[in-house]
Amino acid sequence: MPKYDYDLFTIGAGSGGVRASRFSANFGARVAVAEERFMGGTCVNVGCIPKKLFAYASHFSEDFENAAGFGWSIGERKFDWPTLVENKNKEIERLNGIYERLLNAAKVEIFKARARVVDPHTIEVAGKRVTAEHILVATGGWPVVPDIPGKELAITSNEAFFLEKLPGKILIVGGGYIAVEFAGIFGGLGVDVVQLYRGPVFLRGFDDDVRHFLADEMRKKGIDLRFNHNVDCIERSGDKLCAILDSGLEVKVDAVMYCTGRAPNSRGIGLEEAGVELGADGAIKVDDYFQTSVPSIYAIGDVIDRMQLTPVALAEGMAVANTLFNGKRTKMDYANVASAVFSNPNVASVGLTETQAREKYGRVRIFTSDFKALKHTLSGSDERTFMKLVVRREDDRVLGCHMVGPDAGEIVQGMAIALKCGATKAQFDATIGIHPTAAEEFVTMRTAAPDDGEKDGKAA
Hints:
CATH topology of the largest domain: FAD/NAD(P)-binding domain
Oligomer: single chain
CATH class of the largest domain: Alpha Beta
């Protein structure tokens, strides 16, 4: 008779939790999963997937305009927000079903209920208590709205995907990738967008040249970017909302959307009572193998707040499955993890920024390219593309690759493989480009920036 009901009990059926559960079961473990909301977690329901679908929708307005230069006559155009939301919902429901079928196929027992940790081996779920040799917490994160007067009037990305009506004007507060992406989404759908950020320029952590280049491109597209501002309070003003800024200015809009970060979803599920150590922000503290301060309890994904990226959570889930049930103690390699921002235009990055490279290695060589894509020689658009390589001087190794422009994520994914393999600039130069493409610029940049010393700082 087994000592425990399950070998693994996973709380949260997002990308990481499902991956860990499926493969643990495939390795022979008896596994159960509890999910109180929807299968697939943030990414599938209120994150990556619906956001990318909305981003696709937002680009059609520019596509119609660009078509004229290629000889196309476009008739009357009309966008219907409810149609987009309805079709998005259908696709998400389809994906929810796929996740559930994957778990069922692996013979993972599913509890569609909230789960709470009672002690290191006991979970309370669906009105009963069950036991497990190992517990995995994969509960993700949740949007945070600062505690200001009128905060209840604001929406977050969770609600933005289900708005009954498209706002005529929206104020987006925040400077992270979610804020930048929704500014492009709403702007492309015809909404008057004001984006507010408390710092001097958004996308902190990305390369400074990328940050400034994107800001210039977004302003060209009509986004009202206001840096070094914050909101003191939000009030109702008739059928509008009035955001009063710290400068005293008032911004009247139909909706205020906060994209000011996500907090680890770790409170209220018994972790602290069970002895699991949390950080000040609620992030679960784990070691290199995702083990918490309680040996039988593990955690992965956004709830540990290392890298809030779906593919990272998937890899972490696989690492846990291998460590616990496949005889392979597995650590995560967080070096050269590529990421993309589905802004308009897109941003993608892998490796070190120029600032990070200089801090770590001293002098580096910088290669950049700023150009108008071939498409726009006929479209009439003044959109430009930017690419950048950061190269270590001592051994010619490419340390960072950054891009602003259409399909940046598709292009930089390939660059990520090169950086993971330790490619040098000479190897980039020896690679024959695909012509005519934007991507070939990454293998044709030959002249380093003339100033190899520290640049004047553009951003904090």
